[in-house]
Amino acid sequence: MIRASKAAAVGIILGVTMLLPMVGHTDDKDVVDYRQHIMKSLEHQTAVLGQILSGAGPAENTLAHMETLALTASVALKSFEAKVPGGAAKPEVWKDWADFSKRMKEFAEKSAEMAKVGREQGVDQAAMLVIEALPCKGCHDVYRDEKKI
Amino acid sequence: MFSEGNVLNRTTALPRLAWAGIAFVGTLLPISSFADDQDVRDYRSHIMKTMGEQFAALNQISKGKVPAADVATQAEVLRITAGVAKVAFTPKVLGGEAKPEVWDKWDDFSKRLDELVAAATDVSKAAKQGGVAAVTPKLSSLSCKGCHDVYRVQKK
C-alpha cells in the first residue's frame, strides 16, 4: 500500500514536471514580457482605429484593424493566467480573478462581434459597436498601475 | 491628438476613440485620409510598433518561452498589419523615425514592404498548418533589420 502511494506520488510529480514545458512559460520575465507585447499591441491597434474613426487615418484599413483587435483580444486573457505580478499589472488581477477574467472574456467576445459585423455588414455598422467592444479604460482603472507603464 | 514620442497617451486616446465612434457613424467611410501630418506620423508609428510587438511575441513563442497555442493568432495579426503598412507610408510626410530615403527610394522601399507582406503571409500560413515547428525556420524571412538599417533613424 505504502509502495503504491509512493509510486503514485512520484508519478504525479513527474507528470507535473513534464507538463510544465507544455504550458510554455520558462520564467517570470517571459510571462510579463509576453503579456506586455499583447497589451501594447492592443494599445497601438486601438489608437489607429481611434484615428480612423475620428477621420485622422486611412478608412480603407478599418476592417483590418478590427480584425487584429479581435484576434489579439482572443489571446489576451491567457497571457494573464500565470500568476506573475509585475509590469503594469496590479495584484488585483489575480486577487479579483473572477471579475478580471469576466471582463477580458467580454472584451474578446465583443471585439470578435465587432469584427464579424464589419466583415458581414460593413464597417459603418461595426463602428457602432466600437465603444462597447473596447472598454479599455474601465479595466485599466482597476487593474493597471499607470505609474508602471 | 497623439504627440510625437508619446503615441500611447491613454488620456487622449480613449476619449478620442469614444467620441470618434459616434461621429463615425455618419461619415460612412468616405475617404482615405489623414487630418494632418502629425496624424500620418502617429499612424505609421502605431503600425510599425504593432509589428514590433507581434514579431517579439512570435520570437518568444518560437523559443518555447510562452504558449505555442498562440502562434497562429500572433502570426495572423502580423500578416494583417504588414498588409496595411504601405498605406501608412504612402503620404510623403517626413518625420518620426522614418528617414527621407523612404520617399527618395520609394521603389525599393515599397518593394521591401511587398516582400514583408509575402513573408508574413507565408509565416501565417505555416503557423496555421504546422504550428511553431513550421514557423520557427521562417522567422528569419521577416528580418526587420535590413530595412531598418536603411530607412529608419537609428535610436541614440
Structure overview:
The complex is a heterodimer of chains A (149) and B (156). Chain A is mainly α. Helix content of chain A is 73%, strand content 0%. Chain A contains eight helices and no strands. Chain A has helices spanning 2-23, 28-53, 62-76, 92-95, 97-121, 123-127, 130-133, 136-143. In chain A, helix 2 packs antiparallel against helix 3 and helix 3 (62-76) runs antiparallel to helix 5 (97-121). The model of chain A is unreliable at 14-24 (pLDDT under 50). In chain B, 65% of the residues lie in helices and 0% in strands. Chain B is mainly alpha-helical and 156 residues long.
What is the element layout, followed by pairings?
The complex is a heterodimer of chains A (149) and B (156).
Chain A: H1 2-23, H2 28-53, H3 62-76, H4 92-95, H5 97-121, H6 123-127, H7 130-133, H8 136-143
Chain B: H1 10-25, H2 37-62, H3 71-89, H4 101-104, H5 106-135, H6 145-151
Helix pairs in contact in B: 2-3, 3-5
Quick structural summary:
Chain A has helices at 2-23, 28-53, 62-76, 92-95, 97-121, 123-127, 130-133, 136-143. By secondary structure, chain A is an all-alpha fold.
Features:
heterodimer; A: 149 residues; mainly alpha; Four Helix Bundle (Hemerythrin (Met), subunit A); 73% helix; elongated; B: 156 residues; heme binding (chain A)
Range of helix content of chain A: over 70%
Number of domains of chain B: 1
User: What is the helix/strand order of chain B?
Assistant: HHHHHH
Task: State the secondary-structure class of chain A.
Answer: mainly alpha
Number of helical elements of chain A:
8
Number of strands of chain A: 0
Instruction: State which percent range the strand residues of chain B make up.
Output: under 5%
* Structure summary, number of beta strands of chain B: 0
Distance between the termini of chain A: 55 Å
Largest sheet of chain A: none
Largest sheet of chain B: none
Helix content of chain B: 55-70%
Shape summary of chain A: elongated
CA-based gyration radius of chain B? 17 Å
InterPro entries (chain A): Cyt_c/b562, Cyt_c_II, Cyt_c_prime
Keywords (chain A): Electron transport, Heme, Iron, Metal-binding, Transport
Binding site for heme c (chain A): 136, 139-140
Pfam family, one (chain A): Cytochrom_C_2
